[in-house]
Automatic annotation (TrEMBL):
This is Putative efflux protein, MATE family. Keywords: Cell membrane, Membrane, Transmembrane, Transmembrane helix, Transport. Its main location: membrane. NCBIfam families: matE (TIGR00797). Belongs to the multi antimicrobial extrusion (MATE) (TC 2.A.66.1) family. The chain crosses the membrane at residues 39-59, 79-101, 113-137, 157-179, 191-208, 214-237, 269-292, 298-319, 340-360, 372-392, 404-428, 434-456. It is found in: Cell membrane. It is a multi-pass membrane protein. PANTHER family: PROTEIN DETOXIFICATION 44, CHLOROPLASTIC, PROTEIN DETOXIFICATION 44, CHLOROPLASTIC-RELATED. GO terms for cellular component: plasma membrane. Pfam families: MatE (PF01554).
Amino acid sequence: MDDTPGPHAGRDEERSIDPSATARSPTETPHGRVLDRRILGLAVPALGALVAEPLFVLVDSAVVGHLGTAELAGLTLASTLLVTTVALFIFLAYATTGAVARRLGAGDEKGALAVGMDGIWLALGLGAVLLIVGYAGAEPVVAAMGASADVAPHALAYLRFSLPGIPGMLVVLAATGALRGLLDTRTPLRVAVTGAVANAIGSVLLVYPAGMGIAGSGMATAIAQIGMALALMWVVVRGARARGVSLRPAPGGIIANVRAGLPLLIRTLTLRAAILLTVATATSLGDVQLAAHQIVNSVWGLAAFALDALAIAAQALVGHGLGARRPEEVRAVVRRCLQWGTLAGVGIGAIIALGGGLLTPLFTSDPAVQHAAHLGLIVIGVLMPVAAWPFVLDGVLMGAGDGVYLAVAGAISLVVYLPLLAAVALWAPDGALGLVWLWVAFAGGFLGARALTTWLRSRGQRWMVLGV
């Protein structure tokens, strides 16, 4: 397997870890509270930014929901298409973070900013292509999704007015990845919060006083995303100019970013496939189970933000440590992030498992759905510590630029998961227990396989390529 650490890696600058590397800088390895402060100093602001982003859809749902059922259904369809599309390009953040952090750790700040600029140019190019494809394909895609005659016009209106924000969304990913690699998670937090507030105000004003309806909500989202992209891009550009880094697109750097991002795209596709197949299986179990699955999945997604924040911290610190040729520091970061992840998983899991009975009435008044969702919440509460490991270790290996292995691990995990899903679809008992089987298969089987494959990799040394 190719262990190239990042898009700007040069083989002549790399060397695999060796025991003597530790002896050269033993005092540079942080321990205890110092390391905790570094991890939490990155994770806490990252968590805030992660939570701020879903507020865009939440605010749009609240505003559009008062227009009518057809409008809300159209928003659901359109926003699902947008979120899924952008999620496929999350590698713009992941690949950039590790590569920038590695350069920064090696003391090459100019190189780090150059990587960040390459990521932004790639995001702009991809965004332009998606914008054109989106306008050309919006109508047939909405039709293929099965939208009714009442819903389709509203879905198309939201899509057409929000599509100009697509390039901005991708630039936000790339610029956020660059800033995380520079160990700055506070700037993305401030921009995300400001963007969420601006979107809320703009959505209300354009939908109602301006009389644009659902199209106004789409326009407000596009304006907010473009504004966020400009704000984040300006921070990176200002740093690049101050250090004499060229702002012009570098074809070699952009192509290298594509090479580094493709394995992470495959990894993301395996994850999205598992999620979609899980929803399809829940649908086959019945309406009650499907409704309950939505509740459990919503709570799961919220809890995952805390684990994602730790993964972001691990990604930045691992990339920095490898670039600085400090293997013991990297090992310390991995151990400590896993400890924090396990602790977070136990704490969050306990709250979900013990408080599930209080949460379900907030979502539905149907006793059957409440019961099924409650059992599902107990399952994810118990298995949340298992989920912490693949989240954190994904961040570790992304920080190391080990995308090819993550793609392979994702494919292996999906192959393991498929027979478990088939067993649920064929033999799961009726009623609430069917949902229990499904979440045991996903949280225990699929994520368990991801935890095992990434843990086995992390125990070795092939991913620990030092330098840039």
